[in-house]
Structures are given as C-alpha cells and as structure tokens.
Design brief:
The protein is α/β, with parallel strands linked by helices. Helix content is 39%, strand content 21%.
C-alpha cells in the first residue's frame, strides 16, 4: 500500500548546508522506497495519508553507528574511571549477565523502542559474547521495526578480558561468530531490516588468531566489520607496543579494514591512517560525548570529512551517557569548538587550539544522517527519490518562536533543544514504527 505524506522537510545533503523543502508531498511505494518528492498541489485529487501540522517538520531518520547494547542498563554510571578500569569493574560484569536470555530480552524490549522514540531509525549494535542474546537483539529490532546491524562480540585474549567473560579460544569465537551470522540472516524479516556484522571487540581483547580468523570470515562471507580503533591513549599505545604499528594498520593486516568497516572513535588516527581508511572505503563512528569521558582528546571531525573520510555519528552507549543522537550532534559541535579554541588558559590564544576545526549543526546532522548512511552503505539519510523512507517528525511547539526564528534558527534549535518528547512520529522503510506510550 502506497504511503503519501505532506510535510515540510529539513535535511542536510552535504556538510554545512541546510536544505528546506516547504509543503512537499512524499510518496512511498509498497517496498518502503520514496518514489516522488514534489511541492504539494492543492489540485491533487487524492488526500495525503498523513498531513503534518504546521508546527511540525519532517527530518531523515537518525543513524547511530556505535551502540553497546548490553550496556543499556548501566547508562550513566562509572564514567569517572579510566576506560580499562571501567570495562573490568562495570562493563564486563554487566555484559556477562546476558547469558540469561530472559534478562537479555527484557533489556532489548526497553532499549529498542526507547531508541526508536529518540529518532534512531538505524543502529549499529555490539551484542555480548552470547549467541542467544545476540540473536534475540536482532529479533527485537525486527519486531519493533528498527533498521540495524547486530554483531556478536568476539573476545578471547587472556590478559585483555576476565576469565569469566571471554571466548574459550579463537576457534570457539570464530565458530560462534559464524553461527550468529547465519542465525541472524535466517530470521524472518531480517532481509529488509537487520544484518549481521562481525565484531571483534578491539585489539586488546583479541588474540592474533582470533583477529586473523575474523578477517578470513569477513572475506569469505562479505559481512561488514566493526571494531574500536585508536580510541584513547591507553588503547592506541597498547597496539603500538604489541604490533609496532597503529591500530589502523594492524587491523588492515588482519583483513579487518574493508569497504564500510565501522571503526569506533578514531581519536588518535594520523593522516596516514585516515588515508588508508579512505582508500579502503572504511570510516569512523565519531562518538563526541563518549570521547569527552574516555577519549583523552577530540576527534578532528572537520579535517577528516574534508579529507574524504566516511564519518558517522555514534552515542557509544554506555561510554556516552546520552542515548539521543540529536544531543550527540550538539556535543559534536561543542567538541569541535573546544578543539579549535583549546582549553589551557596559560597558553597564548594562537597556541591554544587547532585552527579550522569547528563544525556547525548542519555538519553534525549530516554525520548523523548522510554520513552514517555512506559509512554503512545504506540508501537512507535523505528524503529523496530512490532512498528508503526512514523519517521522523519533530514538533516545534516548544522549540520555535514562529515570528522570530527563520528555518536556519529553527534547525539549530531542533539540534540543541529537541527532546525525545518532541519526536512525534517515526517511520522505517515506509512503516510507522512510532513506539506506543
């Protein structure tokens, strides 16, 4: 059944540019694909299925390129600790609980609708090491209608993981990963919404044998890969000490840097690293709020985008304590200003920061939509013909002063001020998936 929506569209086709299309009629076919976007004609002989109120706007659905799903119950806790200590004291004990399938399903029932309600139409998930819990996460995404990549975490290093939460060995981890890929691909409805993704946690948690095996699995199956890369001083330096090369080049040697590989954080990527990723078609899930707690520095988003690196936006739940991608857009802008202006008042102004680092809200939103779509190779991120209709409705009632705010000011306020409550309706693949309640 074809869907028609009458709305004003706000979107960012390229970094730094807001596109406003007032009073448009969007038509969507039975497969959830947009077939027309054109100014509404009052002479049209058919009334639209949905007419947005005058104080609402339509935006492309938001893409979260980095979510640790099992960390949902610990959101907002332990963020005063260094990353390695936080993992062992908070995160690994929490993730180990997902051996209980009933517990896992309860968490997924809460998390997936909440993220949809926040406008996250696509999420890239790390699961736990447990196959049943990981497959159940994919099932929850299908049930609630969220587009997703779901990966069983592989981790076997005896020094980088606790004895009570790790794969027994590389062979077992590779076998379990392959089974989870096959199980997710076999789910009814997965072909249109949910895909598996290979997920070696990060180099400190994986032996050489496991990294080699996951790389071979990626080549054999064509499945996308996600992992962490140069997240902070500790992780970046660990890889240099272990391999004598950067995270990027170590992962590349294991066959894990491929087209649409998602590398979380990338704070300490050098120019050579970024050029390697560009050549491979890989990219970065930029997690600005999480990096403020664990990154030890600011990811140079503007420089990376201008170089041609694929960059999406991520919450890094629960290293980032806010599940809203819109709020993380605002944080991306804030972080870029900190990088440009610097933070040490004892230094002269010209020595304090990195010039030409600032981004604006349109570039941040581009990362959260088009940038994420390009990173993942998905036909979403814009409301235009040929793309899937993933979209959200924002109520401007408590955000906009209609006689004062033009569209540029309104869009900035949406990014900085819109709460989950302002998101009135959510579509994925042309289907209304707005959570109830």
């Amino acid at each position: 059944m074809t869907l028609t929506v009458r709305a004003t569209i706000l979107q960012t086709p390229e970094p730094g540019r807001l596109e406003v299309k007032e009073d448009q009629l969007i038509s969507v076919d039975d497969h959830g694909q947009i077939v027309t976007v054109a100014p509404f004609d009052t002479a049209n002989d058919r009334s639209p299925d949905v007419v947005l109120p005058a104080n609402s706007v339509l935006l492309p659905g938001l893409i979260d390129t980095h979510v640790h799903a099992p960390q949902w119950p610990q959101l907002g806790t332990g963020l005063d600790l260094p990353l390695d200590q936080w993992l062992f004291e908070y995160t690994f004990p929490m993730e180990a609980r997902f051996a209980d399938l009933g517990f896992a399903r309860n968490v997924w029932r809460d998390m997936v609708p909440t993220l949809l309600g926040a406008g996250t139409t696509t999420a890239v998930y790390y699961g736990s090491i447990h196959e049943p819990a990981t497959v159940a996460l994919a099932e929850a995404c299908i049930e609630h209608g969220q587009r997703a990549f779901v990966g069983r975490v592989a981790m076997d290093h005896p020094e980088g993981t606790p004895e009570w939460y790790r794969d027994p060995d590389a062979s077992s981890a590779i076998d379990a990963t392959l089974r989870s890929v096959q199980a997710i691909e076999a789910l009814s409805g997965a072909e249109t919404l949910v895909r598996p993704i290979l997920t070696p946690r990060f180099i400190p948690a994986c032996t050489d044998a496991l990294l080699t095996g996951i790389g071979e699995l990626a080549e054999a199956t064509g499945t996308l890969v996600q992992t962490h890369c140069s997240e902070n001083d500790w992780e970046h330096n660990y890889v240099l000490d272990r391999f004598g090369v950067s995270d990027t080049h170590a992962l590349e040697q294991f066959g894990l840097v491929n087209d649409h590989t998602v590398l979380a954080h990338g704070v300490f990527l050098g120019i050579d690293d970024r050029q390697t990723l560009i050549g491979r078609g890989a990219g970065v899930a930029h997690c600005p709020l999480s990096n403020a707690y664990f990154g030890d520095a600011v990811f140079p988003a503007r420089q990376s985008i201008e170089m041609g690196l694929r960059v999406g936006l991520g919450t890094d739940i629960a290293g980032g304590p806010d599940h809203s991608i819109l709020h993380n857009c605002a944080q991306a802008v804030n972080s870029s200003r900190v990088l440009q202006d610097g933070v040490d008042p004892s230094l002269a102004r010209d020595d304090r920061g990195r010039p030409d680092s600032r981004i604006d809200v349109t570039t941040a939103f581009w990362m959260a939509t088009v940038g994420g779509a390009e990173l993942l190779g998905l036909p979403v991120g814009l409301i235009e013909v040929g793309r899937a209709f993933d979209a959200i409705v924002i109520d401007l009632e408590s955000i906009r002063w209609p006689h004062i705010d033009d569209w540029d000011r309104t869009f900035e306020k949406v990014i900085r001020r819109a709460s989950d409550a302002a998101i009135q309706q959510v579509w994925v693949d042309g289907r209304d998936v707005t959570p109830l309640g």
